[in-house]
Amino acid sequence: MVALARSNILPDLPPMSDEGDASTQAFERDVLKGLGARRKHLPPKYFYDAAGSQLFDRITDQPEYYPTRCEMHILQDNAAAIAQLIPAGAALVEFGSGSNKKARILLAAAPVLAVYVPVDISGEMLEQEAAALQLDFPRLKIHPVAADFTHDFDLPEEAKAAPVRVGFFPGSTIGNFEPHEAASFLRNAAKILGPGAKLIIGADLIKPAEILNAAYNDGAGITAKFNLNLLVRINRELGGTFKLDTFEHHAFYNRERHRVEMHLASLKRQKVKVAGECFDFRAGETIHTENSYKYSVESLGALARGVGWASAGVWTDAKKHFSIQAFSLAP
What we know:
Elements: H1 16-35, H2 50-59, H3 67-83, E1 91-95, H4 101-109, E2 115-120, H5 123-136, E3 141-142, E4 145-146, H6 157-161, E5 165-169, H7 179-193, E6 198-204, H8 209-215, H9 222-238, E7 247-254, E8 259-266, E9 270-274, E10 277-281, E11 286-293, H10 297-305, E12 309-316, E13 322-329
Parallel strand pairs: 1-2, 1-5, 2-3, 2-4, 5-6
Antiparallel strand pairs: 6-13, 7-8, 8-11, 9-10, 12-13
Helix pairs in contact: 2-9, 3-4
């Protein structure tokens, strides 16, 4: 972990032991509920333990996986225009900050920013990234918040005191929500950010199925390892008995629902124990681990308008594979 005098970083994150206990309890609760459902499923937010985060970084380097490259290019090419949406003294709140590499582009383009609040479920990674970021932006006040951004959380006082709060939600993470969940996120973001807020969202766009299927089934098999790592985590943290060689990665584009689905398919009939509970699997039965909805500019705009956000700008790559869309909270 990077050592740094953190004069601008709030030292009031929850103690790691308490956070770990609460996170483990939530993980166990969600896993048992999902595996006990008629159609087995697991929340995709649990992909991102340390190993999962490293695997995802490797996915973004694969030639088939276009979203990260497209989004980075859009940000780099349009940073000045996007930064014009950020008023002087504003606080930038990043939902699901991860590695902060996309936020860095905005931070460099918007020196008028006063506060940066990265929000992430992984407290350890959050601290590491905040410390590294502080080295590059020594005058910026950085206040990390360890929280599940899909639920309510409190902003630091300096962010609350800023004249405007700007939300940043890159990575097409909004596509992991069901449409009604995406609407709930947008509604909750409005509540957290408050009056006059702006919201900048990265969203993957609808495109030919062959491009999408290739992106989630890379030739090097990194996405398959990423998917299967969820079972590794369950085994390690919840006493699971999953045998990885009896499950395989499935990913495909569902044209009707405009989404890529990821599953883990059981290769045989078997029983698996997790946290002392037993679950039966039929041969071919799957655990649905992720959806990645693809939007048009119009459909995401309509979703946002329905919960009080007005379009404030749209930027895409040349092939229109990906978009960054900005919204203002309507009065």
